[in-house]
Amino acid sequence: MKKITISLTLLIIFSIALVSCSEIQSDITPPAKISIHKEGVNNPASPNFHGKLVKENNWDLKSCQQCHAANYSGGTAKASCLDCHRLPGGPEACNTCHGDFTNPYKIAPPRDLNGNISESSRGVGSHIKHLDGNTLGNDVECSVCHIIPRSLYDVGHIDSVAYAEVIFSGLAVKGTSGLNQPRYKYDSLKCANTYCHGNFSFDRATSNYTWAFTQAQMVGNNSTPIWNVVDGTYKKCNTCHGKSLTDPSPVGHINSTISACGSCHPTVVDNQGNIIDKEKHINGKINVFNLEYER
After folding, report:
1. pLDDT tens string 83-96
2. What distance in Å separates the CA atoms of residue 205 and residue 259, rounded to the nearest whole number?
3. Is the pLDDT of residue 72 over 50?
4. Is the preceding omega at residue 110 within 30 degrees of 0, hence cis?
């Protein structure tokens, strides 16, 4: 009788369990996978693209590291940022935010922080003409116009100023002093008083070629170029030095013609006025005949 009671009890329990299981609904849609990102996070054309989110967050990648690990290799998010950001530094590489994303050596615009590639844009302007397409002299280093940060979070790199600060040094300030120091006018996009664009003078008293002077000094034209004007206006010889198109020599220099420049500067220019050695033009030195003098 006891065995029958136990068996009956087990049968009741099994029946209750069976009824309960049979009531479980199998057609309920499982919950979506929880994600902080919306659809399109990896699509540059999407408003939800992660690059746009980073920009809106003032380029602070620390929030990315919270889920993707300190080295962006995956972390709790599992998805590694390094799958796309393959250059040294990962997402913190310079050309992630500005420059050519496919070329680690081109870290300056075009592609500025707003995605612009047109040279008429403030953030793009003459970067290529100075860095990669300089046909008149040596390519200009980034440090001539900017303080180069050692890391993403260096002081002054990402701050409250909406544009990159221009702080001239090196070749731009060669031979300049006092009130005539180079400066960049942010409102008009103009560079003023730079050696590169004609802010220079040579004293007859210290020259080995006093016969070439008509005044106590040879003085450059000290042009004030507009950063985003790249139509060739500032490639003319008389723009930075020269009295006129026909006489490209500095004020205080004996009169000359473009075809005669090569007579005294044969290592720099030919008799057609073409620069034949970029390293000897706009280099902070004086190249006369086959000799080179430090300023």
Report:
1. 999 998 999 999 99
2. 27
3. yes
4. yes
Q: Is 72 exposed, middle or buried (0-12, 13-18, 19+ CB in 10 A)?
A: buried
Would 63 be classed as within a structural domain?
Answer: yes
Helix (H) or strand (E) holding 52: helix 50-56
285: pLDDT strictly greater than 80: yes
Amino acid at 120: S
Alpha helices in 101-158 (DSSP H): 127-131
Q: What are phi and psi of 51, to 5 degrees?
A: -65, -35
Phi, psi of 169, rounded to the nearest 5 degrees: -160, 180
Residue range(s) defining the domain that contains residue 79: 47-92
DSSP, res 283? S
Q: Which amino acid is at 270?
A: D
Tell me the whole-structure pTM to 2 decimals.
Answer: 0.80
Number of separate domains in the chain:
1
Helix (H, G, I), strand (E, B) or coil at 190: strand
Residue 262 CA to residue 274 CA, distance in Å, equals 9
Instruction: Give a yes or no: residue 61 inside a domain.
Output: yes
pLDDT for 1 beyond 90? no
The rounded distance, in Å, linking the Cα atoms of 196 and 167 is 15
Q: Give the confidence band of 219 by pLDDT, cuts at 50, 70, 90.
A: very high
Residue 68 lies in a domain: yes
Does 221 map to a domain? no
